[in-house]
Amino acid sequence: MFRALVVEKDGDDTHAGIQVMDESRLPDGDVTVAVEYSTLNYKDGLCIGPGGGLVRNYPHVPGIDFAGTVESSDSDRFKPGDKVVLTGWRVGEVHWGGYAEKARVKADWLLPLPDGLTTRQAMAVGTAGLTAMLALLRLEDQGLQPGQGPVLVTGASGGVGSVAVALLAAAGHEVAAVTGRPDNADYLKDLGATTIVPREDIAETVKRPLESETWAGCIDAVGGAMLARVLGQMKHGASVAAVGLAGGANLPTTVVPFLLRGINLLGIDSVTCPNEIRGVAWSRIASDLDLSKLDGMVVPATLEDLPELGNSILEGGVKGRVVVDVT
Ligand code: NDP
């Protein structure tokens, strides 16, 4: 028997609560993992609540990422006792996820725990942090180097934003952090931000398609009008990694920044990203991310806390990375 946070559907409503269940209820898969830690990402907020179109079947166990120890395995890639990490592959959305003491998944979705990280640290990074690293790798592939000017991070106090600030600073960049929460300025400076940009300075809809060339790169967790505005503020030939939509899915822009400034808009997909690239990203995280800064981002939580925290992340109320101790 094991404990899980289960979302039940009741008409148009959903309700999340802790249930004790038998292993026979676990979905198909070739590896069973004793989950130690999971996390809370924006998508988890959707899946704990009304689903946002992500969850197909109820009852459902959310949790889009987890780390733990292999308990049993029909795959020759993993054996009992191996430490593993999982992010993406629509686990926690269409497949039961990490908000349970046990998870059963496909071996192809698992990676060995990166050297140098504990299961708790891996989940402090989680999907949000891995995605921030994937974004930085793409910006570097496009030629971003320290010394070219400030790199902007939008939604900076959130999960993706916090790790992005710390990773960019560790790579030697000047980091400008956009936040709607001025109280988080010291937190963001501790992570490595050199400048704080108030959200209202950059949130208004585009009035002129091109503004002063300001940013050498951008990791954008917000989308919407803010992303449109940022495109017109990039330096010539610079790139924006589009990661999220915390501020909206529409992109009310023109093609002018692309045509007159050669701006690149790079899409970041952490869900189906090939394992080879994930491996590169995790190694870079393990070698570059200052673990004391990672510690400073962590908000500890339990399965019981998740319904309330799920609402909070959808309202932009979570700071840093919520790490869920599942045991
Ligand atoms: P968080 O809620 O932790 O962070 C989002 C941050 O955005 C908030 O903390 C807040 O930061 C800011 N924000 C919230 N609402 C608004 C708004 N209306 N306008 C402007 N800024 C706002 O979420 P995550 O960091 O987990 O995820 C961020 C986004 O990235 C989500 O849309 C998520 O779905 C997406 N994502 C995409 C992935 C991919 O593979 N492409 C993987 C992981 C996440 P502040 O208060 O500092 O302004």
TrEMBL record:
Residues 11-324 form the Enoyl reductase (ER) domain. This is Oxidoreductase. It holds the Pfam family ADH_zinc_N. One of its GO terms (molecular function) is acryloyl-CoA reductase (NADPH) activity.
